[in-house]
Amino acid sequence: MADATVTTDTSPTANVTVPAPGSASVVAKEAAHFGAMAKEWWDPRGSSAMLHRLNPVRLRYIREQADRHWDGDPASFTPLKGRTALDVGCGAGLLAEPLARLGARVTAFDAAAENVAVARLHAQTSGLVIDYRAGGIEAAAGERFDLVTCLEVIEHVADPTTFVAGLAATLAPGGLLIVSTPNRTPLSRVAMITVAEGTGQIPRGTHDWDRFVTPDELKTMLEASGLHVRDSRGIAFSPTSGFSLSSSLALNYILAATRR
Questions:
Q1: Which of 92, 138, 167, 200 pairs as cysteine with 118 (C-beta 3.0–4.6 A)?
Q2: Which residues have C-beta within 8 Å of that of residue 32, sequence separation ≥ 6?
Q3: For position 10, what pLDDT does the model report?
């Protein structure tokens, strides 16, 4: 980042840089909300329980698109070996760690320093080497990655259009970008805010429906940044079977983009 940074305390989870208030993509209120969840991030029954349930579906899609993009072997345990990956808005590493296990050399950013501290400790105890950093997309200025993932993040940033341009700028030639986010529909308002937040399945205040981005809006932003959407899929939810990939984009969706 171009902004000045400060460091946290000297506790075992210290040595974390905290983005200065001027980080253009970071909304301080959003960072604080998710930072408060840091200690429970890896608890599948805690405040991030829904992310734990969602993660296998997202990983399945990433693996499918990566194999398709790089003509990979579906039977390989390390299809991302030799690739660099950037996970933007990584939380405490719920996606970054599987990407590392798939063979990628992973860099991961989060706006909440508390999340980065927990992520570093969890990776260390898991025997994984991941370059975790506190900050927004600005922290990647000048760097390029083969795979860039940004899942359930764009609805929390200050300026989605500028943020997407920043994502595109981190993509190496021949790279692959994966983005997922809730759609701005009546269904998402009822399901994610009225029901999920209203019943405590998701912490209250996690979402602002007015900040949700539609597939057409996101596609326009990506195309303006020189990218082409090559695939998009819905993510549906059933109380009995959980999350699954779907042809309906009404609730949540995930897409893959490459340079035109």
A1: 92
A2: 112
A3: 32
| Paired strand residues for 180 | 151, 254
Residue 172, H or E segment: strand 171-182
Among the residues of 85-202, which ranges form H helices? Answer: 96-101, 113-125, 160-169, 186-188
- Number of residues in the chain: 260
Residue 92 contacts residue 41 (beta carbons within 8 Å): yes
Helices (H), the chain: 28-35, 49-70, 96-101, 113-125, 160-169, 186-188, 215-224
> How deeply is 187 buried, as exposed, middle or buried, from its count of CB atoms within 10 A (0-12, 13-18, 19+)?
middle
Q: Count other Cβ atoms within 10 Å, centred on residue 159.
A: 12
For residues 146 and 152, the answer to whether their CB atoms sit within 8 Å is no
pLDDT for res 24? 64
Helix (H, G, I), strand (E, B) or coil at 246: strand
Sign of torsion, CA 104 106 110 113?
positive
**pTM metric for this prediction:** 0.88
Q: What is the mean pLDDT of each successive set of 10 residues along the chain, which is 260 residues long?
A: 32 38 64 79 89 95 98 96 97 96 97 93 97 91 96 94 96 98 97 93 92 98 98 95 96 96
Measured from the Cβ of residue 32, the count of other Cβ atoms closer than 10 Å reads: 12
Instruction: Please give the CATH number for the structural domain made up of 23-259.
Output: 3.40.50.150
